[in-house]
Automatic annotation (TrEMBL):
The UniProt record lists the keyword DNA-binding: yes
Keywords from the UniProt entry: DNA-binding
One Pfam family it belongs to: TetR_N
Entry protein name: TetR/AcrR family transcriptional regulator
Domain HTH tetR-type: 8-68
UniProt DNA-binding region: 31-50
Keyword DNA-binding applies: yes
Lineage of producing organism: Bacteria, Bacillati, Bacillota, Bacilli, Bacillales
């Protein structure tokens, strides 16, 4: 493959091929040389955009975060429901079920014990996603479908728990232990006045962790 003379297209090619190789071989087993060979580009073309394989992973992560953010925005604009609670339930179920939103989960799961990765995940959830969820909760408070007096705090706690605490890879949990925590999350949100965790959402989250091999292998 000849080097693309358009930098933006070259960058997209690098990210697409890297994502493919990271998914197929795993991040640790994929080398810069593997990426170069698959692309058919010169080493200089790669290093013009990235200093290391870790930099490529960061770019892949950012692309995934951007896709998820756009998807959330589109769902907020287009999801029709009788009240804010039902709208939020529908949005959460669709996000978890969308394969493209989680296409890199298997790759990113290999970095789950990297402290910087975990911190980035926490910050993304609390700073970017939680305010959006909190806004819908505030709408629910107005229409009576959500009763919490702490929509911002509820949204932040929800994101922290679902992204970090629920993740079986981070804590080495099995399927049953994870399902128990999902039910606790459902119960807690209901008690807090933000009944947004449906049985369908629990099932989809549990399935997603199973798809990426997230559960402890002794079960």
């Amino acid at each position: 493959m000849a080097r693309n003379k358009y930098p933006e297209q070259t960058l997209e090619q690098i990210l697409a091929v890297s994502s493919k190789l990271f998914t197929e071989k795993g991040f640790e087993k994929t080398s810069i040389q593997d990426i170069i060979d698959e692309l058919g580009m010169s080493k200089g073309a790669i290093y013009h955009h990235f200093k290391s394989k870790e930099d490529i992973l960061d770019a892949v992560m950012n692309k995934q975060f951007s896709y998820a953010a756009k998807m959330l925005d589109d769902l907020i604009q287009n999801t029709q429901a009788s009240n804010a609670r039902e709208k939020l339930v529908e949005i959460l179920e669709q996000i978890v079920a969308d394969p493209d939103a989680h296409s890199m989960d298997g790759v990113l799961s290999t970095q789950i014990k990297n402290p910087q990765f975990v911190v980035t995940g926490i910050q993304e959830g609390v700073k970017k996603d939680a305010p959006i969820i909190a806004k819908i909760m505030m709408e629910g408070k107005e229409d009576g479908s959500i009763t919490t007096d702490f929509p911002i705090e509820c949204a932040e706690v929800f994101m922290l728990l679902v992204n970090i605490w629920i993740n079986p890879l981070l804590f080495g949990r099995g399927h049953e232990e994870t399902v128990a925590r999902l039910h606790f999350l459902q119960h807690m949100m209901r008690v807090l006045g933000a009944d947004i965790v449906s049985d369908q959402l629990l099932h989809k989250i549990s399935e997603r962790h199973s798809d990426i091999g997230g559960y402890r292998q002794d079960e």
